[in-house]
Amino acid sequence: MDFSSLLTSFGTSFVIFLILMLLFTGLSRKSVNKVVYYPNRILKGIDPLEDGSKTRNPFSWIREALSSTEEDILSMSGVDAAVYFVFLTTALGILVLAAIVLLPVLLPVAATDNIEKSSNVTLINLEKLSMGHVKEMSHRLWAFVIATYWVSFSAYYLLWKAYNHVSNLRATALKSPKLRAEQFAILVRDIPPVKGQTTSEQVDSYFKTIYPETFYRSMVVTDNNEVNKIWEKLERSKKNLVRAEAIYEESKKRSKPAGRKPTRKTGFLGLFGKEVNSIQYYNEKINELIPKLEVEQKVTLRERQKGSAIVFFTNRVTAASAAQSLHAQMVDTWTVMDAPEPNQLIWSNLPKSFYERQLRQYVVYAIVALAIFFYMIPIGFVSAFTTLEQLEKVLPFLKGISHPGAIRTALEAYLPQIVLIIFMSLLPKLLFFLSKAEGIPSESLAIKAASGKHFYFTVLNVFIGFTVGGTLFNTFKAIGKDPSSAVTILATSIPGNATFFLSYVALKFFVSYGLEMSRIIPFIIYHLKRKYFCKTDAELKEAWRPTDFDYVSKVPEDMLIITIVFCYSVITPIIIIFGVLYFALGWIVSRNQVLNVNTPSYESNGRMWPHMHTHILAALLLYQVTMFGYFGVKKFYYTPVLIPLPILSLLFAFVCRKKFYHFFHSTSLEVASCELKETPNMEIIFKSFIPPCLNSEKYDDNQNDDPLSQV
Amino acid sequence: MDFSSLLTSFGTSFVIFLILMLLFTGLSRKSVNKVVYYPNRILKGIDPLEDGSKTRNPFSWIREALSSTEEDILSMSGVDAAVYFVFLTTALGILVLAAIVLLPVLLPVAATDNIEKSSNVTLINLEKLSMGHVKEMSHRLWAFVIATYWVSFSAYYLLWKAYNHVSNLRATALKSPKLRAEQFAILVRDIPPVKGQTTSEQVDSYFKTIYPETFYRSMVVTDNNEVNKIWEKLERSKKNLVRAEAIYEESKKRSKPAGRKPTRKTGFLGLFGKEVNSIQYYNEKINELIPKLEVEQKVTLRERQKGSAIVFFTNRVTAASAAQSLHAQMVDTWTVMDAPEPNQLIWSNLPKSFYERQLRQYVVYAIVALAIFFYMIPIGFVSAFTTLEQLEKVLPFLKGISHPGAIRTALEAYLPQIVLIIFMSLLPKLLFFLSKAEGIPSESLAIKAASGKHFYFTVLNVFIGFTVGGTLFNTFKAIGKDPSSAVTILATSIPGNATFFLSYVALKFFVSYGLEMSRIIPFIIYHLKRKYFCKTDAELKEAWRPTDFDYVSKVPEDMLIITIVFCYSVITPIIIIFGVLYFALGWIVSRNQVLNVNTPSYESNGRMWPHMHTHILAALLLYQVTMFGYFGVKKFYYTPVLIPLPILSLLFAFVCRKKFYHFFHSTSLEVASCELKETPNMEIIFKSFIPPCLNSEKYDDNQNDDPLSQV
């Protein structure tokens, strides 16, 4: 890829971005679209188009994003969103610090070196500005050594500050005097079966002995498959009833005053069989299902108890301490952990036994490792076809089409990136599914696990795979024979791919941020649904209900950009500008999304952060090792002065882990002992954990009848 | 070493053993020696020579040892001693199970194979009975494969039973309704300094907030160097006063009715300066030191507070749970752990800070790694001189001495083993010192750490070093070039060293158990002291006070024997007999020592066990890998059938760790919640932790004056 195709790539990306932003500006001003562009505000009860002339100005959203504070984020979307901004700010900060020093220093140093014309490196404009332009063994390389150190120390400094800050964010959230049900509960698994006792009796007597004063009640996890099926049927019937009634009301208005009662057929999918009155049909069905559900609920609670429970305590300190303490003599029984929020519990994973969880974890790791290894094969193909010339060799008919300059350049610029992006977009769902299969009990932890897998996936496959170029498998074989060659192979391949990654970063931020802001896809789906499907208010609300902020794919993608920018920062400093643009734009766009669009479906109080921190450090380490190799390739005599850097990074990671990590895993008692605003109403806390399919009004009436707990 | 010198070695070892046992039988029957041979009983208030004719019979101690139960051991020496016997029993059990199958099967299989005479292996009697005698690629090797599996499965089965048993021993000890001070306390370190507050105020307010109901009091660790010096002087003066008075009383009886008052000189070491009356001198000194000590105690308690404290709770569950919970937001502050017994606290290590401890640990690990690597050099020399022939080449004058058959054979048999034993006896003290330098807060944990280091030391240096033979350094270089050759090198060298290790095991058990039983050295020291030094009862008691059971050196030595016997069990099955003898004799001798001689100075409730378990498994793994290599050397076509074994061992280790380990690290709440015999007297518990140098009668009078805690 030469310089002109790079420029074309930037140009096209930017044009797409402009079009999408224009779409956003136009569409978001219309009142009918406000549920698409401001759903989070609407759900929070703030009407976005009411507050003055703010929305008249097409750039007001930028002003709004820039002026919003961390408190706004915390109140609109919680700690996890705030932590994501700490991450973006940190990445941006490191790159800005790098840019301030590297651009004015390294570019002139590189550009003014007169490399021998005899060199077999073809020099085009961009490469003149990179480290490749500096002569071998030149003393100018000292500037690059200092730059390598500067980037590393900027990273340490800002990462340290960020970890401190996130730790305080988490502490503030956990200290909050607001009642939060999960702070009073722990999750107990692997309860050993005992004859002649139900699990519920067993749990109660066990915890009453250990915590005679603070134990409140327990909720044994049950197998809810059956009851859930009935409950879902009931819910569907209720919805259909409302829908049928709405259709009836509408038909009254439209056709004749009596209206036309909607009908449905009783057979398969409502398409075959006798035609009946829908309203009557659903009413009958509901009346039939309600007693059935009640019977099933009782059976489930009594007979389908599993070896797992949620245990409630009357104060936060006991719950926090209980979640961290070993309870049984045999460590694989009565295992405890802090209870996740009720709405993010993965109920089906709770009864999985200790060794089943371990086994599933290792099996999943093995699958992911295999996936990482074999995803290389398609990506290897892509990499081989990166240049159109090679593509033309395989598919000769392309020659005719791609002859004219513009199309050719565009194709050349986009082909590989588009294929890569399609590949990567298939990944997050697969990894999330695999992480859930590990037996992880809560959604946020599963997302954390998926995101971690995704990071190693992208770095190993996309970055290293693309850099070394389609031959990762062969590279591994070569490395197997001579392990010390790994660094050299990486270092020699890196400079050649600079332009590819430059255009990848540009495509990424222009197109994906453009798509995110304009919300073209949710916009189309919402309007289609509104026009042709939605009959009731509930259905309409369902149609525009905003999704969660997509950590699983967003964070690893940002991480890939960080890895790319770090690794090229000293070699081709111009890439830092793109990195800064990526994170600055990302910050503003995400700010808008978090304030106006996405609603968080769970809160992990920043447990994602240690992962992010580790991954930034991993990227830094890769960068340091690569630089070490590249200086070696440059035959720089003083290359060993870089050896302290990776050691420092490991030391930094070690100290951070020791100082901060444990608090992100467990709640510290100091934090849990902060006073509450009000005395907790334990009954409400207990009820918030009851899964919807088991929630009946019965619980209000009479506690003694309630088989959930024999307190 | 040939077969006849092996027999000589056995013979001599056995003669030494017999002599030592005769000495024991003779000496232990004399009433004057009972403090040497039965100190533990005497301290427990049981007079060993009083109970009937038991001691008349020279073998009665064997009957006594055999008939003693685990309860006897628990009551005489506690859980740690009982755990050591579980270890011995397990090792013995594995070897007996191995012997039952391997000896009757493998010996005939090996002996009846007609190996080609052309083979360059010189066949002597012993080697006929070993796997070396089986032809390459022979189908008889299947018997050895099955034997390899049999030994492994016997080990898994007995290790599993043993871990369960030890876990129950520990649980019973921790559940015990007897009050134990350390169960009510936790050790808090890394208390961050705060201005305007003493550490003691800070600790009290911190823990009162978190545990408003169960917090009792705190004891801040102080820098006791100064006060300790004074206290030691005072104690010495007190002792000397008693001694001087005793000398005076004695002189009254002996010379003249008035007696001769003992004198001492006031100068350096009592050897120079003015001569004064000793009794008066010490009385004056004591009167001068007491007020000085009191002043110093107050100063220490007020002004020398360090960032570490022992915190007391009013119940066991809170203490157990507090020791496991994260307290502070910053993990490197307010770190907690369960308090060790007061008498095994290493006070000087308590105030060491978090990162200092980490740093010290890694520095010590590095030193140990270096020591392991460089101990090889002397041991390499020893190994090179193993045969007398080689020694004669270097030291020609030996030729004259060693010419006669008997001396020559004896020298040949003993030389290397003796040198090895001397080398190894220098080690435990060094390793214990290093482990204490890590900053470990209690003696039992330091011993555990030292013992772990010792194990890797012996296996790497003595076993592997000796096997591969003086060229471990070169071997490492060879392995560095081709890592896959490691197993082969080990496998080919093992058979040649069988006789060396056979005689090593024999020497070890005959001589060292003989020495242990006969207590020759304590016997001599005691009688010398009694005759020439001891004047007072206290001094006499000091002279015979039994030592601790020496875990630091005993366990790793036993482990070395296990490693040797495992590795040779299939190759030279005859070694199993020696292994069985070693552990059987060890069991009986140790039983006698634990019941009659040694008194434990601390109790770790079996925390040593997980280490022992891991080390036995490590030995098993080494054995499995060696066998894999050796079958390869034998060109056995089906060698890969052994691959599952090391995997099984790792899996077994993993499951054991997951199931049992955590309970050996922390007290489970289930266990801690057992009821107590009596309501704890917290004041006594608190006082038991006061170091002797700070212990004054002041504490009884008035709590409010007491600066240790402002409760």
From TrEMBL, chains A, B:
<feature type="domain" description="CSC1/OSCA1-like cytosolic">
    <location>
        <begin position="183"/>
        <end position="349"/>
    </location>
</feature>
<feature type="transmembrane region" description="Helical">
    <location>
        <begin position="637"/>
        <end position="656"/>
    </location>
</feature>
<feature type="domain" description="CSC1/OSCA1-like 7TM region">
    <location>
        <begin position="360"/>
        <end position="631"/>
    </location>
</feature>
<dbReference type="GO" id="GO:0005227">
    <property type="term" value="F:calcium-activated cation channel activity"/>
</dbReference>
<feature type="transmembrane region" description="Helical">
    <location>
        <begin position="614"/>
        <end position="631"/>
    </location>
</feature>
<dbReference type="Pfam" id="PF02714">
    <property type="entry name" value="RSN1_7TM"/>
</dbReference>
<feature type="transmembrane region" description="Helical">
    <location>
        <begin position="6"/>
        <end position="24"/>
    </location>
</feature>
<dbReference type="InterPro" id="IPR003864">
    <property type="entry name" value="CSC1/OSCA1-like_7TM"/>
</dbReference>
<dbReference type="Pfam" id="PF14703">
    <property type="entry name" value="PHM7_cyt"/>
</dbReference>
<keyword id="KW-0406">Ion transport</keyword>
<dbReference type="Pfam" id="PF13967">
    <property type="entry name" value="RSN1_TM"/>
</dbReference>
<feature type="transmembrane region" description="Helical">
    <location>
        <begin position="362"/>
        <end position="385"/>
    </location>
</feature>
<dbReference type="GO" id="GO:0005886">
    <property type="term" value="C:plasma membrane"/>
</dbReference>
<dbReference type="InterPro" id="IPR032880">
    <property type="entry name" value="CSC1/OSCA1-like_N"/>
</dbReference>
<keyword id="KW-0407">Ion channel</keyword>
<protein>
    <recommendedName>
        <fullName>CSC1/OSCA1-like 7TM region domain-containing protein</fullName>
    </recommendedName>
</protein>
<keyword id="KW-0472">Membrane</keyword>
<comment type="similarity">
    <text>Belongs to the CSC1 (TC 1.A.17) family.</text>
</comment>
<feature type="domain" description="CSC1/OSCA1-like N-terminal transmembrane">
    <location>
        <begin position="5"/>
        <end position="161"/>
    </location>
</feature>
<dbReference type="InterPro" id="IPR027815">
    <property type="entry name" value="CSC1/OSCA1-like_cyt"/>
</dbReference>
<feature type="transmembrane region" description="Helical">
    <location>
        <begin position="82"/>
        <end position="107"/>
    </location>
</feature>
<dbReference type="InterPro" id="IPR045122">
    <property type="entry name" value="Csc1-like"/>
</dbReference>
<feature type="transmembrane region" description="Helical">
    <location>
        <begin position="559"/>
        <end position="585"/>
    </location>
</feature>
<keyword id="KW-0813">Transport</keyword>
<feature type="transmembrane region" description="Helical">
    <location>
        <begin position="141"/>
        <end position="160"/>
    </location>
</feature>
<feature type="transmembrane region" description="Helical">
    <location>
        <begin position="455"/>
        <end position="476"/>
    </location>
</feature>
<keyword id="KW-0812">Transmembrane</keyword>
<keyword id="KW-0106">Calcium</keyword>
<keyword id="KW-1133">Transmembrane helix</keyword>
<feature type="transmembrane region" description="Helical">
    <location>
        <begin position="414"/>
        <end position="434"/>
    </location>
</feature>
